[in-house]
UniProtKB/TrEMBL annotation:
The chain crosses the membrane at residues 191-213. It is found in: Endoplasmic reticulum membrane; Endoplasmic reticulum-Golgi intermediate compartment membrane; Golgi apparatus, cis-Golgi network membrane; Membrane. Keywords: Endoplasmic reticulum, Membrane, Signal, Transmembrane, Transmembrane helix. One of its GO terms (cellular component) is endoplasmic reticulum membrane. Residues 39-120 form the GOLD domain. Pfam families: EMP24_GP25L. This is Transmembrane p24 trafficking protein 5. InterPro entries: Emp24-like, GOLD_dom, GOLD_dom_sf. Residues 1-20 form the signal peptide.
Length: 230
């Protein structure tokens, strides 16, 4: 999960549904197993005029599909994906807790491995932290390069590093999904190859018996007649 640890807290009153809350100031990524016939829900606190981007992928499980719901703090359905293997959604938010759910109730035997990532923009806290340092610094006008310029450069590097981490995380998710698909196809090919081999052996044995058994019967009858004549 990297240095951006996911804070998973069980929400009261949601014993039937898995619920979790993530830190509002950090981007988060999470991988979990969704059992067959179950639904898991998560909550993300957001602020007004902020941005919530959510990307998910089904990494493993029969069909590689899941139902996805995204609800506003007022309970309105913002996004509904039915039987999808992946999706990317971005919404402009208001104050309150946004709920998103992964639904596997349509499956009775197959569990799903799901990866999702939250990217939060314009949450406000980072900008406030950047303003706090200025009251402790005096005499910046005498510097050839202002501290604001240094901060801008550092923030640019930080944003690029964060983007690189997000891309690498998504690439790892794609790699895990492709590996699971290849392993599933490998097992399927081996199974049907063994079935075909068994059928070929049975057919070959039947053909051999069909060719040689009548001759053997005729030879036995001829030998028996010869003995009776003698």
């Amino acid at each position: 999960m990297g240095p951006r640890a996911v804070l998973l807290v069980l929400a009261a009153g949601c014993a039937a549904l898995g619920a979790a809350e993530f830190s509002p100031a950090l981007d988060s990524d999470f991988t979990f197993t969704l059992p067959a016939g179950r639904r898991e829900c998560f909550y993300q606190p957001m602020r007004k005029d902020a941005s919530l981007e959510l990307e998910y992928q089904v990494l493993d499980g029969a069909g590689l599909d899941v139902d996805f719901h995204l609800l506003s703090p007022k309970g309105e359905t913002l996004v509904f994906d039915e039987r999808k293997s992946d999706g990317v959604h971005t919404v402009e938010t208001e104050d309150g807790d946004y709920m998103f759910c992964f639904d596997n109730t349509f499956s009775t035997i197959s569990e799903k491995v799901i990866f999702f990532e939250l990217i939060l923009d314009n949450m406000g806290e980072e900008g406030q932290d950047q303003e706090d340092w200025k009251k402790y610094v005096t005499g910046t006008d005498l510097l050839d390069m202002k501290l604001e310029d240094i901060l801008e450069s550092i923030n640019s590097v930080k944003a690029r590093l964060s983007k690189s981490v997000q891309i690498q995380t998504l690439l790892r998710a794609f790699e895990a999904r492709d590996r699971n698909i290849q392993e599933s196809n490998f097992d399927r090919v081996n199974f049907w190859s063994m079935v075909n081999l068994g059928v070929m052996v049975v057919v070959s044995a039947v053909q051999v018996l069909h060719v040689f058994f009548p001759h053997y019967v005729l030879n036995e009858k001829a030998h028996s007649c010869d003995q009776n004549i003698v």
